[in-house]
Write a structure and sequence with these properties.
InterPro entries: Kinase-like_dom_sf, NH2Glyco/OHUrea_AB-resist_kin. It comes from Streptomyces sirii. This is Aminoglycoside phosphotransferase family protein. By secondary structure, this protein is an alpha+beta fold. The chain has two domains: 104 residues, Phosphorylase Kinase, domain 1 (2-Layer Sandwich); 184 residues, Aminoglycoside 3'-phosphotransferase, Chain: A, domain 2. It is built from twelve helices and ten strands. A hairpin with a 5-residue loop joins β8 and β9.
Amino acid sequence: MATAPIEPPQRLVSSLSGDPDSPARQWLQALPTLVQQRLDAWELTLERVHAPGGRSSLLALVRQQDGTPAALKIPVPGRRSAHEAAALEIWDGWGAVRLLRSDEESGALLLERLQGAVSLRSLPEAKALLEAAGTVRRLWVAPAADHPFETLAGRAEEAVEALRTAGALVRSAGPLVDEARELGRTLPAGSDERFLLHGAFRQGKVLAGERAPWLAVGPYPVVGERAYDLAALVLDRFEDLMAGSGAAAAVRRRVAKLADSLEVDRERLRHWTLYRAVDTGVREAAVGDRRRGELLLEFAAWL
């Protein structure tokens, strides 16, 4: 049982600081009560709320009734978190954090405790990429015919329209946006692969554990081809890659190395990486970190 007030981390509060009448803000106001309800229902003892935490969920470090450490995750309601539990159940701890319990109504997840302060980003780049590739490979499994997950074709179709809208705010990126939109329309139809993908894979989403050295967390699951997941690894720590000499050649070498190591088609990986770099870069430049967005667009141009 909690003995201290439950305060959402400032990063989460700031990320949901829009319309006070929005569902997300209403959820934030009810969050302390939601956490306490899960603590009581699952007989958990609160140690502390993890900070700075993320922008789309609250994570609390807890103890189960038998004293075993665990982590309680309460996500912001919405489609992004809707199928996280289903994906974790399928993986059952193989390459990913183990799901201990879930509550469909609140979206709450009780997860095995990992070392939240130690991710693959703490490793040298070459070692981090090697471990990340080995981890994401474990997650690529064939889903059941009646799986609940959205498809990559559906996700890309929606993103293409959003890309058009955001791209209008970054006019200098016009040709790249046009190319990325065309890739978003054509790439999903060009592959017969149907794997369950993490969907938001990157080095910071792979944490150190006791049961296994490295385990993935925070999936945004989608069904499609592996190159989509792998594209995020090509983009990982791209700022470091761009700061070195011969950066454009280094980018192309990274694509080739990752594609070959995981038996993914190089050209499709290059195209998915370009698409994801432009998609993220345009959104960052339009409404977020403009400098980072422009760097991502420059990265995409090298592809």
